Amino acid sequence: MRGGDTTGLRAYNERLVMNALLQTGMLSKAEIARETGLSGQAASVIVNRLLEDGLLVKLDKVRGQVGQPSTPIAPNPDGAYALGVKIGRRSLEAILVNLLGEELGASRVRYDAPLPERTIATAIAQATGLLGHLPPAARDRVVGLGVAMPDEIHAWSTELGLAAGALDGWREADVAGALGRATGLPVTLYNDAAAACAAEMIAGHAIVSRSALYIYLGTFIGGGVVIDGRLYRGEQGNAGAIGSMPTGPTGPDAPPGQLIHSASIFLLERALEAGGVDPSAALTDGSGSTANAIFDAWADTAAVELSRAVVSALSIIDFQEVVVDGFLPPAWRDRFTQRLSAALERFNRSGLKPALVTAGSIGPMARVLGAAMLPLKARFSPDTDLLVRPGMARDLV
């Protein structure tokens, strides 16, 4: 695979071809030319080069149609790989995927708190361990490593039950540098909820509109913004920080609270523990009458608080869709989404257009999967600055 050919018209056209095939699965050379707007000769030259590089493969000829049999071209699953690491407040996950985003290996480590040195060391161990799944000849086909982690992770010691300043080491921690030195890969950092939104756009099926507010119910609630079919990260990379939305009245002696303190999973975890229920088990299968009653009580409050933030967001950006995902069991996620939809109906929304409210399709793996898929998207999409939703290939031409 050519690592240095990353600029210029030739590289751009190669990305056009790869993007078209990754979105459609397979095309003939003639179809590739039509899909990308390239001439037949240019498409053929590029396809042959990508076949030689091992990024594409020829499939069996298709016969029985009018004219000459055609030979479909498809992405080679083993043509490229990427790693993803999710550093969370309660766990660290790592995943190795192939060019199609298929999981080749994964690991998960839980901890009570994301203490910086220990967490970074764990991330290095998990990432290098997954690289060991690949034969040596395939190592140079790993295009990069994406890291999904919360912004300002150092600021949440109190919410995690830690002493003040326990997470201050994150202020100066060089996560990308440490992982880059250990793996030899280019490393890119992403907001964890934005990475989850990217996973839904690339590998999921819930985002069906050109604009969407994506909400991820994690230990701390977060979000992502889709505008014109693209993941919008904002001028400072913090678009969709819905957890920072103010809630409650402003008093003379204290500022209002934030949504993160009223609609986050850490509150549900505390309630489950107080009720004698193991949070890890409950958040895995959602079974048990006690666990369900505790969830319902948390969801009733959280959905109302979140609905205010959603209506506020809809009044600023005319979102067509609101997608709710997270590391809730599917049944709980669906019930929460229904509660949010019902809570939105109680608002006076004069002057606002209705938005579809739906559950996400990926769940707990969304953040780490997004972290792994984004380096592949950056390498093989002609639009490297903004992520484009599958099905909108023509927007890139």
From TrEMBL:
Official protein name in the record: NBD/HSP70 family sugar kinase/biotin operon repressor
GO MF term set: kinase activity
Pfam families recorded: MarR_2 (PF12802), ROK (PF00480)
Keyword Transferase in annotation: yes
Source domain of life: Bacteria
Family of the protein in this entry: Belongs to the ROK (NagC/XylR) family.
Keyword Transferase attached: yes
Domain HTH marR-type as annotated: residue spans: 17-58
Record-linked Gene3D superfamilies: 3.30.420.40, Winged helix-like DNA-binding domain superfamily/Winged helix DNA-binding domain
Annotated InterPro entries: ATPase_NBD, HTH_MarR-typ, ROK, WH-like_DNA-bd_sf, WH_DNA-bd_sf
Keywords carried by this UniProt record: Kinase, Transferase
